[in-house]
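Hey L., structure's done. Input below.
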Amino acid sequence: MTLLCMGHTIWSMRRHAFTLIELLVTISVIVILAAFLTPFLHRSRLQAKAAICTSNIRQLNIILFTYVADNSKFPYGFYRSLDLPPPDGGYAGDLRYDRKGWWWFNYLEGLYRRSMGKRTLLQCPSKNLQDIKLEGDILCGNYGVNLSICKMSLGNADEEFIGEPLASLEITHPSRTLLVLDSGYAIINWWHAADVPPGILGNSTIEDTAYVPGLKINKDRLFWPGGGQNYDALYGRHPNKTVNVGFLDGHVARINADELLVEKNTIGYKNLVPLWRPK
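Output:
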């Protein structure tokens, strides 16, 4: 009886053991499944990051509108000042190449401090900057406001983008005019999305190289030397070269980057008003 039991046990062990062929087949199946699943998982991660970006833009829109309700106009995109924002804001950029002053998010009470603590809201999770210096600069490769709305107090920009920020009542087509979007720099204007800008877009300052990520004309643009912006500008951040855009009526849309292109034609510029310039 004992011998029979031992024989049965040995036979059972042999029956459940893997042969070399079975092991190779199992490994092959795992490799094939991994090959199929890896692109899917990669796309899923990209979609998840794009969804977080959409949420960030939506919240920024709400906070900007709250500011308008309290102040009757939008904040400056950039206000040149020798005095830096208060301690709860802090300076956002790098004084080696960013100008000194207040940026639009410094006017939004507590936003900068809260966001930097958790690396949220002001930072696009899909930014593709290749230079470590710019990677830590909140002004670069995240979100930008439309300088036709949130203007500058003064600076290198054209006079069209300098002056008092607009009030919400000055916007005639809020559902079709962009306010904040995925951007190469914290302030952006329609010149950066034009195939033939009215003036020269140089690279003397980093804000000159603002861009819409994935826009087809970026391949012909000059970017800040050594800044690592090219990959973000040429290939975009989100699947299919889409960008997240917050409009002046509060809605947020993810659209193809080339839908923001401003093209020059025989009568002026196509896609300029009311998309970039409100009137």
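The longest strand covers residues 242-247. Helices lie at 2-16, 20-71, 111-118, 132-135, 230-235.

-- N.
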